[in-house]
């Protein structure tokens, strides 16, 4: 009993000697980006230069592609071409195919309008590098849609 009473007394004395610091519960602050606005052309040039670096490695390529996939945009064909060249420089064929597939997914509901344009623009690069599209590899259909080997 004495122990609990002495503990209470010490707490009361501490509060009376040391003034309490009051903090405001909420400070309304608007966190906005007031920096320079990057134009579309500058954005495209920045990512194209990023993928065209000669010393780029697989991790950095994935990081750049992940950044692009996280944005609310479909990459310009010149960015896609630079990324495909970067994939071939590090000899990562699967990453190149998956990036094309990710670009297709970024087209959203306008996939029938945007994706054929992208393929048309990057087709010479695909031919030059020997990369096939996901459709040519059969990745656009689920595996169960394939014909059974017993029916052949």
TrEMBL record:
Cross-referenced InterPro entries:
Cyt_c_oxidase_su5A/6, Cyt_c_oxidase_su5A/6_sf
A GO molecular function assigned to this protein is: metal ion binding
Any one Gene Ontology biological process term?
mitochondrial electron transport, cytochrome c to oxygen
For this UniProt record, give its keywords in alphabetical order, as a comma-separated list: Heme, Iron, Membrane, Metal-binding, Mitochondrion, Mitochondrion inner membrane, Phosphoprotein, Transit peptide, Ubl conjugation
How is this protein positioned relative to the membrane? Answer: Peripheral membrane protein
Task: Kindly indicate whether the keyword Ubl conjugation belongs to this entry.
Answer: yes
The reply to whether Iron figures as a keyword in the UniProt entry is yes
According to UniProt, this protein's pathway is: Energy metabolism; oxidative phosphorylation
UniProt-annotated location(s)? Mitochondrion inner membrane
According to the record, the segments passing through the membrane are none
Which CDD domains does the entry mention?
Cyt_c_Oxidase_Va
Cellular component aspect of the GO annotation: mitochondrial inner membrane; respiratory chain complex IV
The record's Pfam families line, in alphabetical order, gives: COX5A
Q: Please report which protein family the annotation says this sequence is part of.
A: Belongs to the cytochrome c oxidase subunit 5A family.
Summary of the function given for this chain in its UniProt record: Component of the cytochrome c oxidase, the last enzyme in the mitochondrial electron transport chain which drives oxidative phosphorylation. The respiratory chain contains 3 multisubunit complexes succinate dehydrogenase (complex II, CII), ubiquinol-cytochrome c oxidoreductase (cytochrome b-c1 complex, complex III, CIII) and cytochrome c oxidase (complex IV, CIV), that cooperate to transfer electrons derived from NADH and succinate to molecular oxygen, creating an electrochemical gradient over the inner membrane that drives transmembrane transport and the ATP synthase.
Subunit structure of this entry? Component of the cytochrome c oxidase (complex IV, CIV), a multisubunit enzyme composed of a catalytic core of 3 subunits and several supernumerary subunits. The complex exists as a monomer or a dimer and forms supercomplexes (SCs) in the inner mitochondrial membrane with ubiquinol-cytochrome c oxidoreductase (cytochrome b-c1 complex, complex III, CIII).
Query: Under which name does UniProt file this protein?
Result: Cytochrome c oxidase subunit 5A, mitochondrial
The species is: Papilio machaon
């Amino acid at each position: 009993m004495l122990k609990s009473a002495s503990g209470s007394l010490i707490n009361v004395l501490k509060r009376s000697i040391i003034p309490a610091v009051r903090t405001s519960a909420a400070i309304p602050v608007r966190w906005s980006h007031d920096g320079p606005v990057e134009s579309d052309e500058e954005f495209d040039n920045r990512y194209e230069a990023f993928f065209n670096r000669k010393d780029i490695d697989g991790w950095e390529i994935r990081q750049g592609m992940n950044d692009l996939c996280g944005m609310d945009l479909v990459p310009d064909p010149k960015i896609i071409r630079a990324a495909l060249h970067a994939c071939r420089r590090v000899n990562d064929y699967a990453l190149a195919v998956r990036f094309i597939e990710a670009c297709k997914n970024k087209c959203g509901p306008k996939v029938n309008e945007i994706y054929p344009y992208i393929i048309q623009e990057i087709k010479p690069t695909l031919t030059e590098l020997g990369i096939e599209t996901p459709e040519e590899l059969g990745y656009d259909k689920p595996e169960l849609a394939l014909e059974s080997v017993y029916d052949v």
